[in-house]
Design a protein that fits this description.
By secondary structure, the chain is mainly α. The protein has 2 domains: 79 residues, Orthogonal Bundle (Endonuclease Iii, domain 2); 105 residues, Endonuclease III, domain 1 (Orthogonal Bundle), CATH 1.10.340. The chain is built from 12 helices and no strands. The chain is elongated. GO terms for molecular function: alkylated DNA binding; DNA-3-methyladenine glycosylase activity; DNA-7-methylguanine glycosylase activity.
Length: 216
């Protein structure tokens, strides 16, 4: 399998996954029921940081199918999907690939942040989640939800609770409140039992709504 830039995709399994599943099954009756339903499926990381964030920008406010179509056209423009290569692209070519003027501005800003060293990619392994979120939301077009998805799917941080995620809130409603509406504070109370593996529990909540694993 290859990513859009043609390089092999590396699918990595978090080393904490089995311990997380044991912890969640002990602490939470819903997790004890959900986890066995999905066998060996687990969170996986693919691609590199720049490509992952660029895809998230391209996919904003359009369907998954449309996002893939635009991405496929955009990814053919640079020889390799790198910040420096994106900065050399012509705006007209990017528009022709299906990108709006705003998304082009966002992608250029993303490339500038990476290319200039304004964000500390090499230090992310040693940085706290909130410090990384602060760096990412400083990039135009990236909000807290996108930053949290990046922490979960790219950096595979184990304890991220994306309370702005509609799927998580809907899944908590379905699995813990018989479908009744759920507030952020109620969701946070449910998730108290998940710590320090909120990312893993969130992944299983998503699976309870859509059995196909999500990958970014």
């Amino acid at each position: 399998m290859s990513d859009a830039g043609g390089s092999p995709v590396q699918l990595a399994r978090p080393d904490y996954w089995e311990e997380a599943c044991r912890h969640l099954a002990r602490k939470d009756r819903v997790m004890k029921r959900l986890i066995p339903q999905f066998g060996d499926a687990c969170l996986q990381s693919r691609g590199d940081a720049f490509t992952t964030l660029a895809r998230s920008i391209v996919g904003q406010q359009i369907s998954v199918k449309a996002a893939q179509s635009v991405w496929d056209r955009f990814a053919k423009l640079p020889r390799r999907m790198t910040p420096a290569a994106v900065l050399k692209l012509k705006v007209d070519d990017m528009r022709a690939a299906g990108l709006s003027a705003r998304k082009i501005e966002y992608l250029v800003d993303l490339a500038l942040h990476f290319d200039s060293g304004a964000i500390h990619v090499d230090a992310w392994d040693r940085m706290e989640d909130e410090a990384i979120i602060t760096e990412l939301v400083g990039i135009r077009g990236i909000g807290r939800w996108t930053a949290e998805m990046f922490l979960i799917f790219h950096l595979m941080r184990p304890d991220v609770l994306p309370l702005d995620d509609i799927g998580l809130i809907n899944g908590i409603s379905k699995n813990y409140f018989s479908g009744d509406p759920v507030s952020r504070s109620e969701a946070r109370e449910v998730a108290a039992a998940w710590t320090p593996y909120c990312s893993v529990a969130t992944w299983y909540i998503w699976r309870s709504l859509d059995p196909l694993p999500v990958a970014y």
